[in-house]
Design goal:
- The complex is a heterodimer.
- Chain A is built from 12 helices and 13 strands.
- By secondary structure, chain A is of the alpha/beta class.
- Chain A has a single domain, classed as Rossmann fold.
- In chain A, a hairpin with a 2-residue loop joins strand 9 and strand 10.
- In chain A, helix 4 crosses helix 5, helix 4 packs parallel to helix 7 and helix 7 runs parallel beside helix 8.
- By secondary structure, chain B is mainly α.
- Chain B is built from 13 helices and no strands.
- The chains are: A alpha/beta, B mainly alpha.
- Chains A and B meet through helix 2 and helix 4 of A and helix 10 and helix 11 of B.
């Protein structure tokens, strides 16, 4: 069943049980959809739950995490839809999806490769896990993949160990590892944060190139508005475990409706927009996730806060078909959570 | 890899020479006639002072020190280590008879402590913050803090005297096979290995937990690998690197500990002999044993380098 969406997340909640039975609601009712073959940018500041959302999709959460509510529907092309939230996190089904149909690239390429195996071993490991293929064939495919990702002398370098590669090269190896099984969805969790600026641009270009070459869908998690503006088709803005604004890139960048999105756009420099506008920081700090305000989570920092914001959690409002905002001040069709 | 091995081997040579020079220097300082350490006592009995002087000149005892050092070194490596002043037996014979026994004891202790230390450490790490983890920690602290001789005495009391399962003393009969005498090894080897097992349990737990939190373990899971494959291929091998260093570092300590344990269990080994040699001022024998033991320690450090290089490609550079 091929729908328009490859992934539908409905009211996902991921919670961590910490000391003294306190519960931290890292992801608190997240709903969004990823369009097939498109790039979704998931933005938000540190600790807002972006990474936890991504890890929830892959079910790579630590043992202290639970998903008490919500669904993560994955609709693979030519396969049956699965609710990832219901799967056993160490079971056979989730393992057949991980690395094969959904791949993930992590933030720190220096730490994400095992230092004691050469990169060839590590790339073909995922290939041989998911398909019956000889070691020789697998290595040939790995070399071709590395060449595609412009790693010079790939057939020689495949025998090298991670410490013999630079940071940007390691991230290319991670991308090769993520793409070698031709996944339908790639989740890139801050893929450029640990790299320097010139390498960042190369990696972003590379992901875009690969995406147009293989046609997979992508979720790119970042706190860098520039990257989102550059590559995303859709944008989800996350604050304190909730998606506060969701829409196409044009919706969010040209007509930001949520005060947090507006503040966020005013507080970061965007390339090519130098000069005139002064950057305005968002006042206050993010609340402690275990002691959330009763109303809107952004209320204490919001310039437009009213009495209504203090008491009730704003629901989802569909301003247009594609543009959804969680703010009491926005007028539109009321949607379910 | 081979190049690295030979490099390490070459580095060992000057170290061995330095140690042997120290031991030779100590021998020079010991009181008594060096002749008594070079010839069996019955040969020297009844010789006149002139004969002794002539003999001294003939074997080169009046030569410069450096010459005597190299002569001694060559003799040492060709198996001529002189004679025990106390018993008059050739030292090479004493060592070839007793050293293997101590090596067997230390190796058994190493084996037992490695197996138990790894198993308990892995259990503590995979079930961390559960009752099993706490239990392993408590037993670990007890094991580390109790001295070996005390553990040995308690073990004799419980397993040999009260329960009567295992022999309390000795090494078994010379006629019996190695397998039949194995039960004599259990108590001394376990007592000797307990503190290492305890240290290893703690070390394995921490090393495992450290590696389990590494990003590359998450990468391995994200590839769709099974938990057991993630554990054995990605966690275990990385966790093993610091653990293997600890194991081999402890090898010389085990041999040192055998001095005490052999005494407690009346086990005829080189440690036991070392103690009697010290008590009877048998310097030649004492220093030869010490030289042998330092070579064992050097060998252990070579093993550390080798195993680390095998496990970790970053070391081979």
């Amino acid at each position: 069943m091929a729908t328009e969406y490859i992934l539908e997340i409905n009211n996902l909640k991921t919670q961590f049980v910490v000391r003294r039975r306190r519960v931290v609601r890292a992801v608190d009712g997240v709903t969004f959809k990823v369009r097939r073959g498109k790039i979704l940018g998931l933005v938000g500041e540190s600790g807002c739950g972006k990474s936890v959302t991504a890890h929830s999709i892959m079910r790579l959460l630590p043992k202290t995490a639970v998903i008490p509510e919500g669904s993560i529907l994955f609709h693979p092309e030519g396969g049956e839809s699965v609710d990832m939230a219901k799967l056993n996190p160490t079971g056979r089904k989730i393992r057949s999806i991980r690395g094969n149909e959904i791949s993930m690239i992590f933030q720190d390429p220096m730490a994400s490769l095992n230092p004691v195996y050469n990169i060839g071993d590590q790339i073909i490991e995922v290939l041989r896990e998911h398909s019956k293929i000889t070691k020789k064939e697998a290595l040939e495919r790995a070399v071709r993949m590395l060449e595609l990702l412009s790693i010079p002398k790939a057939s020689e370098r495949i025998k090298d160990y991670p410490h013999q590669f630079s940071g940007g090269m390691k991230q290319r190896v991670m991308i090769a590892m993520g793409l070698i099984c031709r996944p339908q969805l790639l989740i890139a969790d801050e893929p450029t944060t640990a790299l320097d600026v010139t390498i960042q641009a190369q990696i972003i270009e590379l992901i875009k190139e690969m995406q147009s070459e293989f046609g997979f869908s992508t979720i790119i998690i970042t706190h860098n508005m520039g990257i989102v503006a550059d590559m995303a088709d859709d944008v989800a803005v996350m604050y304190m475990g909730k998606i506060v604004e969701f829409g196409t890139k044009e919706d969010v960048f040209l007509n930001p409706l949520h005060p947090y999105t507006q503040a966020l756009l005013k507080s970061v420099p965007i390339l090519g927009n130098a000069g005139e506008d002064k950057l305005i920081p968002i006042r206050g700090v993010t609340p402690d996730p275990s002691e959330m305000p009763p109303g809107c989570a952004f209320e204490p920092r919001c310039d437009f806060a009213t009495e209504a914001c203090k008491t009730c959690v704003p629901g989802r409002v569909g301003v247009t078909d594609s543009h959804i905002v969680r703010c009491v001040h926005c007028i539109g069709e009321k949607l379910d959570d | 890899m081979l190049k690295y091995f030979f490099k390490r081997l070459l580095v060992m040579i000057p170290m061995m020479l330095a140690i042997s020079l120290l031991v030779f220097g100590a021998l020079e300082l010991t009181p008594g006639d060096p002749l008594t350490a070079q010839f069996p006592p019955d040969q020297l009995v009844g010789m006149s002072q002139e004969d002794l002087d002539a003999l001294r000149e003939a074997v080169g005892l009046n030569d410069p020190m450096l010459v005597r050092y190299f002569r001694w070194l060559i003799a040492f490596f060709t198996g001529d280590m002189g004679y025990s002043i106390q018993t008059g037996t050739p030292i090479s014979q004493v060592i070839s008879y007793l050293l293997p026994q101590t090596v067997i004891l230390a190796a058994a202790a190493l084996l037992i402590s490695t197996i138990f230390g790894l198993i308990f450490g892995i259990i503590a790490a995979t079930k961390h913050n559960t009752i099993w983890d706490y239990l392993a920690s408590v037993i670990g602290v007890i094991g580390i803090s109790m001295p070996e001789f005390f553990i040995g005495i308690v073990a004799i009391l419980i397993f040999a005297i009260n329960l009567g399962w295992l022999p309390a003393q000795g090494r078994g009969s010379a006629d019996a096979t190695f397998i039949q005498n194995l039960r004599y090894l259990i108590l001394p080897a376990s007592s000797l290995g307990l503190s290492l097992a305890a240290a290893l349990t703690r070390y394995t737990r921490n090393s495992m937990m450290d590696v389990m939190n590494q990003d590359y373990v998450k990468t391995a899971r994200a590839k769709g690998l099974s938990e057991s494959r993630v554990f054995f291929k990605h966690v275990f091998r990385n966790a093993l690197m610091p653990i293997s260093v600890l194991i081999f570092l402890r090898l010389p300590m085990l041999i040192g500990g055998s001095v005490v344990i052999e005494q407690v269990f009346g086990y005829a080994g080189i440690g036991n002999r070392l103690l009697t040699a010290i008590n009877s001022s048998d310097y030649q024998l004492v220093l030869t044993i010490i030289l042998m033991l330092s070579f064992v320690a050097l060998l252990a450090s070579l093993l550390i380098d080798l195993v680390t290089a095998l496990l970790d490609p970053r070391v081979r550079l």
